Amino acid sequence: MICRICMGHGAVDTLAPDRESAGSISVSALEKAVGEGKIHFVALGDRHSLTKVGGSGRIWYSGTPEPTDFRETQSGYAHIVEIGDAGVTTRPFKIGQWRYIECERVDLNTGDDVEALRKSLEEIENKERAVIRLVLVGTLSLTLNGVLMNHLLAAKDVFGVLDVRGTALLVLPDDTDFTSMGFSGFANGTVKRLRSKIEEGADEATTTREALMLMLRLARGTS
């Protein structure tokens, strides 16, 4: 038996955003060639996830041997294809060792939330081959944010990659944060006014929060 394998690279028209694009590969043309016995199997490259194309079971994207992005669903496989007189069989074989793990919304507001995040990171296996993305939201006190930063610094040392996105995480000092600052007189009055504006949700709340954080950094002697 002579095996005829067609290999190509690019987007098929059934999956491409622009099906009329001149660069798209026609699935119907491939299926016709398979049905007529001109091709036994079509091996495609372009998609990083293992993907079956069409209804014949003979047109596949094999994907990549290792994942390369958080959005991939079935990467990290070798695609084993057997072609014989009885037909064509395929089976995926997992070979990838890296993992991409994205936590799209980690809500942090309390000490328990911060501790839960620490435990969840600790429980991830094979950390040296894990790419982690954390999207943090919520509101933390200055003290709890310090605890969080310590946990994240420790995690960066053990994970392959730790990508932390915390632009939606607010750090809002509470009473505990100010206890050891020793503010009095004008400084104490300024702190109270700033905190009041933040709590009221004033239009300049972001600028007010930054001013308050600057005062705390100066009081603690940090940059």
Quick tags:
223 residues; alpha/beta; 2 domains; four-stranded mixed β-sheet; three-stranded parallel β-sheet; 9 strands
Q: What is the strand and helix layout of this fold?
A:
Blueprint: E1 5-9, H1 27-35, E2 41-45, E3 51-52, E4 59-61, E5 77-84, E6 87-94, E7 99-108, H2 111-122, E8 130-140, H3 142-156, E9 161-171, H4 175-179, H5 185-200, H6 205-220
Parallel strand pairs: 1-2, 2-4, 7-8, 8-9
Antiparallel strand pairs: 3-4, 5-6
Distance between the termini: 74 Å
State mean pLDDT (0 to 100 scale).
Answer: 86
Structural category is alpha/beta
Number of strands: 9
Return the string of H and E elements: EHEEEEEEHEHEHHH
Number of helices: 6
The Rg value, from CA coordinates, equals 28 Å
Give helix % range: 25-40%
Overall geometric form: elongated
Question: pLDDT below 50 for ≥5 consecutive residues: which ranges?
Answer: none
Beta-strand content: 25-35%
Main sheet record: 4 strands, mixed
Walk across the major sheet and give the strand order: 1-2-4-3
Q: What is the total domain count?
A: 2
How would you portray this structure in words?
- The structure is a single chain.
- It is elongated and about 95 Å long.
- It has 2 domains: 5-94, no CATH class; 99-220, no CATH class.
- It is built from 6 helices and 9 strands; from the N terminus they run βαββββββαβαβααα.
- The chain is 33% helix and 28% strand.
- Helix 2 packs parallel to helix 3 and helix 5 (185-200) runs antiparallel to helix 6.
- The termini are far apart.
- The protein has a 4-stranded mixed sheet. The protein has a 3-stranded parallel sheet with strand order 7-8-9.
- It is α/β, with parallel strands linked by helices and 223 residues long.
